[in-house]
Amino acid sequence: MNRRDKGSKGRNWTRREFLRTAGATTAAVGATLGFPPVLKYALGSTTIKIGVPAALSGTAALLGTEFRDASILAMEQVNAEGGLLGRKVEVIVRDTAGTAQGASTRAKEMIESDKVDFMCGANLGHEGLAVNEQTYPRKMVFMCNTMSDPITAIPTFSKYTFHPDIAPYMLGNVMARFAAKNLGKRWYFLIADYAFGWQNYEGFSKILKDEKGENLGVSPHPLGTKDFSPYIGKVMGSGADVLITINIGFDQVNSWKQLREFGAFEKMKIMAALFQPGTIWAVGEDVVMGGYGGATFYWEAPETKSISDIFEKRFGRPPTDDALSQYESVRELCDAVKRAKSLDSEKIIGALEGHKFKWAKTEEQWRACDHQAIQDIYILKAKKAKRKYDVFDIVDRIGGEQLTRTCEEQGHKKDAKGKWIRYQ
Amino acid sequence: MNNETRKTKDWQFWIAIPILIILPFLTPYHAIATNILIIGLFATGFNILLGYTGLLSFGHASFYGLGAYGTGLLIVKLNAPMWTAMAGGVLAATLGAWIIGYLALRRSDVYFSLLTLAFSQILYFLAFQFRSFTGGDDGLRGIPVFKPLGIDLGQALNMYYFAFAFFIAMAYLARVLLRSPLGKAMRAVKENEDRAIACGFNAQRVKLISFIISGVYGGVAGALFTLHTRHVGTDLLYWTMNGEVIFVSIVGGVGTFFGPIVGSAAFLLIHDYLQVIFTRWELVVGMVLLFFILFFNQGIVGAIENRVASYREKRALRVGSGQGKGY
Amino acid sequence: MFHITLRIYLLQVFIGLSLGVIYAMMASGLSLIFGLMRVVNFAHGSFYMLGAYTLVYLISLIGNFWICLIVAPIMVGILGILVEVSGIRRLYGTEEFNPLLLTLGLNYVFVDIIRILFGLGGIGSSVPGALDGMVNLGFMMFPRYRLFIIVAGAAVLFLVWLFINRTNLGMVVRAGTKDNEMVQMLGINIRLVWTLVFGLGITMAALSGALIAPITGTIPEMGMFVVIESFVVVVIGGMGSFAGSILAAFLVGQVIAITNLFYPQAGTVAIFVLMVVVLLTKEAGLFGER
Predict the structure, then answer these.
(1) What is the pLDDT of residues B27-45, one digit of tens each?
(2) Phi, psi of A361, deg, nearest 5
């Protein structure tokens, strides 16, 4: 192997070299110790602290920003209304970089160093699961705002875990039934090859089977695929009436754009499991014209318009589903503290279970067994935008407990007294 | 190694050990000190391969992942007790290193590196695909908080000193190894493989043993990771993990003994500090890497070692003039 | 099994060609750089990404697609030369993997700078009007722009092939791939040749990115996986072999297209398995030399 001739042992220690060494070492290690690194919206020392793990960097960075902004808005409103138990609320947002390792580390940091009282957030499925492992041993209430099936089921679930977001299963129940009844019964799937893709696929294909439809196959694509042409042939040759695409962000707009390019829209109906507004705004609604998609919130819907306008005024853009779901979680958590008149986890759990609430859309309710927020899901269709952000028509809105898996299906059991058994 | 060099390296231990003992109190929060140890241990193994044997592996995350998943799967699927599970994880990493090392070392230089990367990607794919077994990208969950010998590992300080015990043991083992005939053989292979062979070393076997040993370190680090975060995800096997360990080694100093742990501390603390004030921390990480490669090739510890060595030589020259200690 | 007609099969073959041409431009650049300079350029993906961003940005300023398509890769190529002169050149003669690590670091820097300048979400883009729509190839319809990619890419590859095999400078490059020191001893300024070759490779990478941008849009991370795939192609074809990397690129393009037709789950891992098999059976890829 080639090597530079070092001859370093006999060199003199010049001042420049010394400064370089010292400088590099100090910069690398010493600098951190001097400054407390914190992104706090500090409002006094006896605040009630809510930790928000969010993906502010990495590939999911758009989602993390939504969480941060929504949490700030909720905090400001709660404080304007007088705070909680005579104290102000403070949200501490930390960047997980979208990885499970990052989420674990941030959760540990927020618990150990920031001494948060509650945790509310997490963008991606694996992040939420990683954070959950840190919160339940410390008996800390965690509003896990990821779209995940396992979080509400045994063995992952803990009594301190709440799930304000929908589960992929619920989404499937709404969108798949709609598609089977209205669009066609011979389906092909194009999914992003990760938990979100597969969990939704399972839900959708099960409903398809229930509705006596035909599943012609699935093409999983890696996250972040730019060129979807390899999958086109199979999609076009599948003979399907309906193509279900299960992906988000740029994968979504790119796949739809390229499908249109190859003429897929003329051959079949196309439905996205979940529309992702951020990217659709960025590239224009032409990309999704003629297709259907699901959403947990629609910012132009009458029941959401007022909070949307407040958000838009504050941040310059309407809130996406992620933002509204986080806003609701923080407000609901603070409200529970108020009603329980305490920071004690058990009391807060008691205040939340069964509670009905309405912060950003139609009424929702916390189911007692698995702490799932029972809520409505929207079916949307793209339309020519009337104003910059008004890009969808609401085709239907469906909700109710029947959308979810039953408590028993998820492994929950009742004891002799009729109370749900909590394993952790 | 003669007495002179042995002495020049010993001071590192006497400085490093006390710092590491109080490290949790120097960092903003204890958990990150544990992360520093874990990555530092992983990088120590990586450094044995790169710094002392001269082989650059792009797929070392394989062994970190095998250690973590091995430990995790034994706990979750078979309810194994903690020590058994850790042993199993390390064993998985060792076997993996043996197989991958044997295959990859059949080629040299950049082909060797790319082969290790390919194997790492294949392992990633396996962990990702068999989601019903490994949890896929949702990760492996259900690892309880362990209390070995009555110590509650859920407490951050306890976890740190538990990991520290392993780190000290493995660091001492590395020290012994690098001074042994095997260690000398590794260095000979790094300097000039053909000459080493001409001197009678079985270079291929030396490289394989070094590879396996470095894999063991990765495995132990992975096992500790599982106990620390209680969640094993596929991002451990993703290729970005490989980049992290390379960065840590460069910044700390390739071929130095404590380079890895210093590099680990530097990387994790910079990352942590930066993430708060500047979400584009990867930019700074990249620039630091560039800076070190271009201008500071020996890394932090390497540079310090050189200064100390040249200082001592000058002192020896002054003191021992005429007394001929002999070079 | 459903109806895979000849038409669908041919569609996939053509798609494989458009993939192959992009891989060929990426891989041949990588291969030249490695063959001549023994530098493993991990930043190749970032230059691909920069080519895409530069094109889209220039179009938003100037508007004329054709001008931008020519100017953007050249601009990025110049940046590549700057990188070589100021960074990589310092590392010649040091540990063999230093330039590799340098390019690894460059990735982080380029990606984050683009994030700062253009945001996290990337920029959408669209195909220029003249190249939009489908073209009737007789036996099937195929998007006109993808056909353009195949033709343009093939033309560029042909030109580069001509350069390498029919010009004096190209002969120096070929000789340098075989024996660097000998070429230097003949009095040729090898450093300049290296710089030019590096610039050429980067320009091709940037052109690949620019060509694909109208279809896929741009995101900061778009180069990350492409570079790994490109390395696989280069290794299969043999590092240092220009013809080898082109052949391997088209082979891989077809393999990906056809695999996705019959067994989509295999997807990304298939090329790594292929690489392992090739490397373990043939020491330096199909056409490579040590």
Answers:
(1) 889 999 999 999 999 999 9
(2) -160, -155
